[in-house]
TrEMBL record:
Extent of Polar residues compositional bias: 1-10
Stored SUPFAM superfamilies: Acyl-CoA N-acyltransferases (Nat)
Family annotation (Pfam families): Acetyltransf_7
Signal peptide extent: none
Domain annotation N-acetyltransferase: ranges: 22-153
Gene3D superfamilies: 3.40.630.30
Annotated region (Disordered), positions in chain: 1-24
Species, as recorded: Brachybacterium sacelli
InterPro entries found in the cross-reference section: Acetyltransferase_Butenolide, Acyl_CoA_acyltransferase, GNAT_dom
Entry protein name: Ribosomal protein S18 acetylase RimI-like enzyme
Length: 153
C-alpha cells in the first residue's frame, strides 16, 4: 500500500503514509522474523515454539515490509473478535524507526477492529515507555483505576 493514505480510525485525518518502497500486509511474519524483530526492538525474547502459537492463533496481523522484502514493523491483535481486542507485539526494526511504520501498523489494526467489531469494543494494550507517546497520540488512555497485571513464571 505504498503511497496509500486512508482515514485514521475515529477521525477525519488521513492515515499515515508509508515511505516509498514499503508495503503494508495483512499476514503474520515468519517464525524467524517474529523472534528476531522482538529481540532487536527491545521486546522480551521468545522462542520459536512460543512464536508458533502467536503466529497461528492471533485474530489479526499487520506487518510492513521494506522494498527488499525484509520485515520492518509488525503488530497483532488477540481477542474474541466481538468485544475484547488486545494489541500485542507492536515492534519496529530499530533501523526503520521514526518513519511512521509503527503508527501505520497501529492505525491499520485499529481500523481492522473498527470494521469487524460491534459498537464499543474493549481495546487494550500494555504500553512500554518507548511506545507510550505513540499510543496516547492514537487516543489510548491509562486504564486507571484498573491496573495491568501479570502472573510471573
Amino acid at each position: 500500500m505504498t503511497g496509500d493514505t486512508r482515514s485514521a480510525p475515529g477521525s477525519d485525518q488521513e492515515r499515515t503514509q508509508l515511505p516509498a518502497g514499503f508495503r503494508l500486509r495483512h499476514e503474520p511474519p515468519t517464525n524467524a522474523e517474529y523472534v528476531r524483530l522482538r529481540a532487536i526492538s527491545g521486546l522480551s525474547p521468545r522462542t520459536p515454539e512460543q512464536a508458533a502459537g502467536a503466529l497461528s492463533s492471533s485474530w489479526a496481523w499487520t506487518i510492513v515490509r521494506s522494498a527488499d522484502g525484509g520485515l520492518a514493523a509488525m503488530g497483532r491483535v488477540i481477542g474474541d473478535g466481538t468485544w475484547y481486542f488486545h494489541l500485542a507485539d507492536v515492534a519496529t526494526d530499530p533501523a526503520q524507526q521514526r518513519r511512521g511504520l509503527g503508527r501505520a501498523v497501529m492505525e491499520d489494526l485499529i481500523a481492522c477492529i473498527d470494521a469487524a467489531a460491534p459498537p464499543d469494543p474493549y481495546v487494550t494494550l500494555l504500553a512500554d515507555p518507548p511506545g507510550q507517546h505513540l499510543y496516547r497520540s492514537l487516543g489510548f488512555v491509562d486504564s486507571a483505576p484498573s491496573l495491568g497485571m501479570r502472573l510471573p513464571r
